[in-house]
Specification:
Elements lengths: L8 E6 L5 H12 L2 E4 L18 H6 L2 E2 L13 H8 L12 H7 L4 E4 L3 H8 L6 H18 L10 H4 L23 H12 L28 H8 L7 H11 L1 H6 L5 H14 L3 H10 L15 E7 L2 H17 L2 H13 L25 H4 L3 H4 L2 H34 L9 E5 L6 H18 L17 E6 L5 E5 H8 L2 H26 L4
Parallel strand pairs: 1-4, 1-5, 2-3, 2-4, 5-6
Antiparallel strand pairs: 7-8
Length: 529
């Protein structure tokens, strides 16, 4: 009897410009699969050029899902919404098409492809925080209390497993008015809410902490409008970052050790999770990992038969390819496309303080911020030498932003896929797309071989990539030599200790201490008058 067909969930990773869409279509045609787009910007209608969507002809070669499903002026899309569109939904509140499960039930191969790797993670693992995960946390705490006969501590005993997940996202599902708060955490929640209520009397420091971006969209101006910041952070917007971190130390010390005091986004998120659910975010993560042996919960893959392909190109070649792609976008009507949606945007209620907010919705896409000066010019001004100079400046800024975005994508893939800790990280197979003339030999044929082996339930002859040795190990260190600088991973801490700046500061401190000691000795040896 022939073995049952094992349909894998195929995931195609890679920086922008490496050929992910091309490979997805070819695999879809070869295996009769369907493509699920995991690109946060391609979910919006319009901007086909700037978001580099596949053409109608390419879409006709293989069914595509989750393209053009959002209104271009929608600004409330989240990774949770994407997950709920792509996965089977337990809650009856949602009525999205259950793409992945439907395809698997029909014995069709789901091929997940896109540049928003955080979205892909949400399909492979359950690490988003919602009511289901909070209920799991309460059950885990109750079980521990019963078995140990005592109250559990805020501090987790599973620091090592926390390395598997360094991020989460608060669900947009409204919190129940009767959300049960674990008795252990009730005093801290009340304390935090009181601190929040006192925020009106706190003078803001006006600091703006730029941090590494959560991958998924192009980097935008870190100087957000105060109104946009207030909407995202609520009453926490009135606190400076260091004060917020001190609040987090009181209610969730484990997360506070994990997050740098200047990583404002993550600190605020952890505070919001505790404020909303009455449970530390670290406790929720620990409960997810503890239940990872159950299919569908964090720690274990939702789809054990997952096949992850990473398209890679030489950096110099990729940079040149991306620059050429920007030139092609200009030829295909990039500026006109931006202008049309920009005009539509200005006519909407989404304008903040008289100018667009490039931190929301599709306007986070590369292009709007870079061409802002040009877009607000009149047709006559654009034809002047100054206008043409501003256009050229925007083109160069777009090229730079695209190259930087590709590098951030690669960093995310290394940290969150290749170097993912734990026994439930899928194998990642590298495919070299540097030379287009060798596409079949270096990309398509190996990909077909790897996926075919997964279909048979076998390991392919091609070896997966090995995790890099210098993967991040989370620690918490404070350098008192360098004015109390904080480090939250071993790699940065080790690099700092060997840095020229630290050695210079340490030497200066030793000289100062030696001079002070000599001064004290001199005073002690002075004859009494």
């Amino acid at each position: 009897m022939a073995a049952a067909r094992r349909v894998p969930v195929v995931v195609i990773l890679g920086a922008t410009g490496t050929g992910k869409s091309k490979l997805a279509i070819e695999l879809g045609r070869h295996f009769g699969g369907e493509i699920i787009s995991a690109d946060s910007m391609q979910m919006y209608q319009g901007l086909d050029v700037i978001t580099n969507k596949v053409t109608q002809d390419e879409q006709s070669q293989c069914p595509h899902h989750l393209l053009n499903v959002l209104h271009p002026l929608s600004t409330n899309n989240t990774v949770t919404n994407f997950r709920d569109m792509a996965l089977p939904i337990v809650s009856l509140t949602y009525h999205w098409v259950h793409q992945v499960e439907r395809l698997l039930n029909e014995n069709k191969m789901p091929i997940i492809v896109g540049g928003t790797n955080y979205y892909i993670e949400s399909l492979l693992w359950n690490f988003l925080i919602d009511h289901q995960t909070v209920e799991l946390t309460h059950k885990t705490a109750a079980t521990e209390n019963f078995s140990q006969g005592e109250e559990t501590s805020n501090k987790s005993t599973a620091n090592a497993t926390l390395g598997e997940k360094s991020d989460s996202c608060v669900s947009t599902t409204p919190c129940s008015e009767h959300q049960q708060v674990h008795p252990e955490h009730k005093p801290q929640q009340e304390h935090l809410q009181q601190l929040g209520n006192d925020s009106e009397n706190l003078v803001s420091s006006g600091s703006s902490d730029e941090e590494p971006e959560e991958e998924g969209v192009a980097r935008t101006n870190p100087q957000e409008s105060s109104k946009a910041k207030k909407e995202k952070e609520g009453h926490y917007a009135d606190f400076d970052s260091l004060h917020l971190h001190s609040l987090l130390q009181k209610v969730d010390p484990e997360s506070a050790k994990r997050f740098h005091p200047k990583n404002r986004r993550k600190v605020v998120r952890a505070l919001q999770v505790f404020d909303k659910y009455g449970v530390p975010m670290s406790a929720i993560h620990n409960a997810q990992h503890a239940s990872g042996r159950t299919p569908g919960l964090s720690g274990g893959l939702r789809y054990p038969n997952s096949c992850v392909l990473w398209l890679r190109s030489g950096q110099t070649v990729l940079d040149e390819r991306l620059d050429k792609r920007v030139e092609q976008m200009l030829e295909h009507g990039l500026v006109l496309e931006l202008h049309e949606l920009h005009t539509q945007y200005l006519d909407s209620v989404a304008v903040r303080d008289g100018k667009p907010d490039y931190t929301l919705g599709i306007f986070q896409s590369i292009g709007f911020k870079e061409f802002h000066e040009y877009l607000i010019m009149s047709p006559e001004e654009r034809e002047t030498p100054q206008g043409k100079g501003i256009l050229e400046k925007g083109v160069e800024a777009l090229k730079l932003a695209t190259r930087q975005y590709a590098r951030r994508q690669l960093k995310w893939i290394r940290n969150r896929f290749l170097n993912r800790a734990g026994p439930h990280a899928p194998d990642v197979y590298g495919l070299d797309s540097t030379d287009p003339s060798q596409w079949t030999e270096h990309v398509l044929d190996p990909a077909i071989e790897i996926v075919s082996a997964a279909l048979r339930g076998e390991k392919p002859a091609i070896q997966p990539l090995s995790p890099e040795r210098n993967s991040t190990i989370h620690v918490h260190n404070v350098c008192h030599v360098c004015e109390g600088r904080v480090f939250v991973n071993l790699k940065d801490w080790t690099a700092h200790l060997s840095s020229r700046r630290h050695k210079k500061m340490a030497q200066r401190k030793r000289h100062k201490e030696k001079a002070e000691a000599c001064e004290v000795n001199a005073r002690c040896t002075e004859p009494a008058s």
